[in-house]
Amino acid sequence: MVRHRKPPSQTWRSFLDNHVKDLVSVDFFTLPTATFRVLFVFIVLRHDRRSIVHFNITEHPSAEWTAQQMVDAFPWDTAPRYVLRDRDQIYGAYFDRRVEGLGIEQIRTAPRSPWQSPYVERVIGSIRRECLDHVIVLDERHLRRILRAYVDYYYSCRTHLSLEKDAPEPRPVETPAMGRVTAIPMVGGLHHYYTPLAA
């Protein structure tokens, strides 16, 4: 057999780079509570600014519930062109029909290949390392409050090397002439936002 030097189509990395503005990733992660209930957290991440578009929590995920999360994440014709997801059984026929109705094309990763969905896997790892590994979650309401605080911090304050050390929500450059730098606690004091405050 003749070996081809170039792949016949674009590589996976090229696909991610070429469609970064039109692509979101979705995934679930689980979290046990203090009473040993297992909660499922659904995350929707937009690739271009690494922003968490939507998250929600349930104890009993289903294809219908997951499809509704996509509708909630993209109201009023704001749906992206592609959604990148794994092959979990939770995404059933109902989910497929609902996403198709939104005009979104699904891109499924290969089996047992989380590296093909790097951005959402990375944000889930960040949520665990920077937030959930430091708290004991009591119940769904408590987890929702913690995640809402972390997502606010992540969206407006947390810098990313891939965004040239900017946050998903762009912020202006602050110079030393603007005043003394002050730390503002966020996420219950787990993180801080540093900003100059005028004297």
Task: Please describe the structure with a list of short key phrases separated by commas or semicolons.
199 residues; alpha/beta; Nucleotidyltransferase, domain 5; 5-stranded mixed β-sheet; two-stranded antiparallel sheet; 5 helices
Q: How would you characterize the overall build of this protein?
A:
The structure is a single chain. The chain is built from five helices and seven strands; from the N terminus they run αβββαβαβααββ. With 199 residues, it is of the alpha/beta class. The chain has a single domain, classed as Nucleotidyltransferase, domain 5. β6 and β7 (191-197) form a beta hairpin. α2 runs parallel beside α3 (93-101). It is globular and about 65 Å long. The termini are far apart. The model has no long low-confidence stretch (mean pLDDT 90).
Short structural summary:
With 199 residues, this protein is α/β, with parallel strands linked by helices. The chain is 29% helix and 25% strand. The longest helix has 17 residues, at 140-156.
> Helix coverage percent of residues?
25-40%
Mean residue pLDDT: 90
Order of helices and strands: HEEEHEHEHHEE
Shape, principal axes of CA atoms: globular
Supply the number of structural domains.
Answer: 1
Biggest sheet details: 5 strands, mixed
Would you tell me the structural class of the helices and strands? alpha/beta
First-last Cα distance: 74 Å
Please tally the helical runs, counting DSSP H or I stretches of 4 or more residues. 5
The CATH architecture name reads: 2-Layer Sandwich
* CATH top level class name: Alpha Beta
